[in-house]
Amino acid sequence: MKMRTSISTMLVAITSVAAAMPAAAQKQKPNKTVFYGSLDGLAGLEGLKGLDALKGLEGLKGLEGLKGLEGLEGLQGLEGLQGLHALEAVAPTNYIWDAFDHTDRRSLRAVVPAAWQDQDPANGLYKTARDELNRNNHTKAAATFAQIITRYPRSAYTPDAYYWQAFALYKVGGESELKTARALLEKQRTSFPRAATVSSKESATLLARINGQLAGRGDSEAAQDVARGADRAISQQCPNDDEDDVRAAALNSFLNMNSEQAIPLLKQILARRDACSAKLREKAVFIVSQKRGPDVEDMLLGTARNDPSTRVREQAVFWLSQVNTERALVYLEDILKTTNDDKIADKAIFAISQHNSARASQMLRDYASNQNAEFKLRDKAIFWLGQRRGGENGNFLKDLYGKEKDAKLKDKIIFALSQQRGNESWLMNLATNDNESVEMRKKALFWAGQNRATSLTELAGLYDRMKSREMKDQLIFVYSQRHEKEAVDKLMDIARREQDRELRKKAVFWLGQSKDPRAAEFLMQLINQ
Fold it and tell me: Which of 161, 245, 294, 355 could be disulfide-bonded to 148 (CB atoms 3.0-4.6 Å)?
């Protein structure tokens, strides 16, 4: 039976044709962004295409197919990766600093402030230099900042131009550029002691790094400065935040220059117990974690057990993830059994997840099934189990799903299983199980559909068998996320034959997001009926 196209469906089709047309064929005018509920959870999922096309579709309702994706909250488990920024240390460099604790990168400002003196004669040069530096044209930026210094010595921009020229030369990285940068910073310190970058200690921090690099190239003067800076870093009591950045840079430069002295010096730092050295000890924990040798495990374990700072202990526990020994696992297991600090337990779960052993998997399984454990920690254990290979972990999660009563944790288990290969049939069986809640079925269907191992033929055949309108709605969304031409065929079939007007409208909407030329042709035919 040929269905009559309703006005509302036709309006959706017209809007969808506009979305499907090449950009050059559309009139260029600003889109008004309309938000259909919260799509924030979809950010970063490359499998979800075309969601930016939701812009400008005023009046469209019925995007409930996007609902039921609360399972994406399971990605909060990735919070445990926050410390992995430091693993940039594997990059080819002779300097630990390049990967050293992201919190200290603020001390070496990389974005030049916008121009603020319109009447200043150096204003134009400053803007040019700023643009060049922001485009990483370091040589041109250095030359332009130099012009400010030589041509306009009384300019408001001149005091900090010394820093920015030195910074640009530091980024160029040649030995002559580094020596020039050092001279510039020393000149700035004596001639402009009140410059913003001097007062904030940014200049001193940059100088420490430059000296570290020059010392590594055999510059004896720089080596002496580095050694003096390291002595001050260890002995200094209660520095402010800016001075703490300087001593961290000095310490790091010294360790790179004297690698054989690194472990004894780090032991000396980690042995301190005063509150003022907590940040320095935290940085030392990171450097220790990047070292190799028999002392590393003892130092991290000792810090994790005994340091008076919770933050320092957290970091030591986190970096035990890099110590792949049975002894470290035993300690991490003890933490999970005894600690009342959720943050430390969180770090312990992450550290265990990075150990590739049968015992580590069993520890995660034990914690995931512990009904007395905190929800968010069980959630993390479930998440990391989903990232591990092995049928034993998958079978455990399936069994746990059947036993678990908490709907949120069941959601997390579905997501974890979707991250492992070979669970497509289980997800599809859950999606078609009428005894399960509709929400769990929708989530299982979504993740099954995201997996290209799930046959489109199987997904397309589900539509006519589904009794639930909500599940049909979800299937339409799943089809929209597949790239096969059979998915477009199915959406066109639904738009043509489905008797539920709202479902037809949704099929039409998603056809409008397709790059398949047949979709635009179909929509035009629909409009002209």
Answer: 161
